[in-house]
């Protein structure tokens, strides 16, 4: 089982051919060996998403999606080569039920969630909203851990968490200590979450090193200098984490080849 996750930064922009060298997201789907692909920030309703991905669906992929409640924002989806046996929108909190930030599916004997956390903004209501979403997701994750222990059903939550956990997860950590995405309480929340048996499988595969980053600003030389953030995670239950054969970020070879400000994070579970 190979699982990829990518914040597409707008599905209609991501599938657009930008130049003769940059053909967008669709050729990536032609080449990927992934069995399941999680998308975040689709910024599209269900019909627009299916239309943008029509060549992918014609190749036999199955699509589940959670459309955003505000036009042009949020939106998550999961594509799988095997049919879904269950689809659940939302993480259980009524406040976020229709925000297009959490989608959970059952496919190939695995529970997979695509999740897109709010960006937040320090000392504002936006940050309080982010923290309420964090709490809601943690509650759902506790139930999934119980499911893993009681029934042996493994799970993986994939997506853009908008939190860099440690100094190794952000190039310019000194300049971001007081900014959303690297606030002490956010980092502690993730530490506490990982203490409940969830495993950050990319960090498990790349211990003690900077990166591998998966987001770089479009501005300046951030990409060229690899001045990025590692905010795109796959958190897996212990049984699934023990099966990780490889984990990598699919960083484009050049700035001009980027079809999103994020890069796919791909994990091979044996």
UniProtKB/TrEMBL annotation:
Asked whether the keyword Hydrolase is assigned, the reply is: yes
Q: Show where the Endonuclease/exonuclease/phosphatase domain sits.
A: 5-262
Species in which this protein is naturally found: Mycolicibacterium cyprinidarum
Classify the source by domain of life.
Answer: Bacteria
Q: Please report the name of this protein according to its UniProt entry.
A: Exodeoxyribonuclease III
Q: What are the UniProt keywords, alphabetically?
A: Hydrolase, Magnesium, Metal-binding
The yes or no answer to whether the keyword Magnesium is present is: yes
Tell me the gene name: xth
Q: Which coenzymes or cofactors are required?
A: Mg(2+)
Q: Which InterPro entries match?
A: AP_endonuc_1, Endo/exonu/phosph_ase_sf, Endo/exonuclease/phosphatase, ExoIII-like
Q: Which SUPFAM superfamilies match?
A: DNase I-like
- Indicate the family of this protein: Belongs to the DNA repair enzymes AP/ExoA family.
């Amino acid at each position: 089982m190979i699982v990829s996750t990518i914040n597409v930064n707008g599905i209609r922009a991501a599938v657009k051919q930008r130049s003769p060298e940059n053909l967008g997201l669709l050729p990536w789907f032609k080449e990927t060996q992934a069995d399941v692909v999680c998308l975040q920030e689709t910024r599209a309703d269900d019909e627009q998403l299916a239309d943008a991905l029509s060549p992918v669906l014609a190749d036999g992929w199955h699509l589940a999606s959670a459309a955003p409640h505000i036009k042009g924002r949020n939106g998550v989806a999961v594509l799988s080569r095997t049919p879904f046996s269950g689809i659940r929108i939302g993480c259980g909190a009524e406040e976020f039920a229709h925000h297009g930030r959490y989608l959970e599916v059952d496919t190939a004997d695995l529970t997979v969630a695509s999740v897109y956390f709010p960006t937040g903004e320090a000392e504002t209501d936006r940050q309080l909203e982010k923290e309420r979403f964090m709490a809601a997701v943690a509650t759902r994750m506790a139930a999934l851990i119980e499911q893993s222990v009681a029934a042996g059903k493994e799970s993986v939550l994939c997506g853009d968490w908008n939190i860099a956990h440690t100094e190794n997860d952000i190039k310019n950590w000194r300049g971001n200590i007081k900014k959303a995405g690297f606030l002490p309480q956010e980092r502690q929340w993730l530490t506490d979450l990982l203490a409940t048996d969830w495993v950050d499988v990319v960090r498990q595969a790349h211990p003690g090193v900077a990166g591998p980053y998966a987001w770089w600003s479009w501005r300046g030389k951030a990409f060229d200098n690899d001045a990025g953030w590692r905010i795109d995670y796959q958190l897996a239950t212990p049984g699934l984490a023990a099966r990780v054969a490889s984990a990598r970020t699919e960083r484009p070879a050049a700035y001009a080849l980027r079809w999103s400000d994020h890069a796919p994070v791909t994990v091979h579970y044996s």
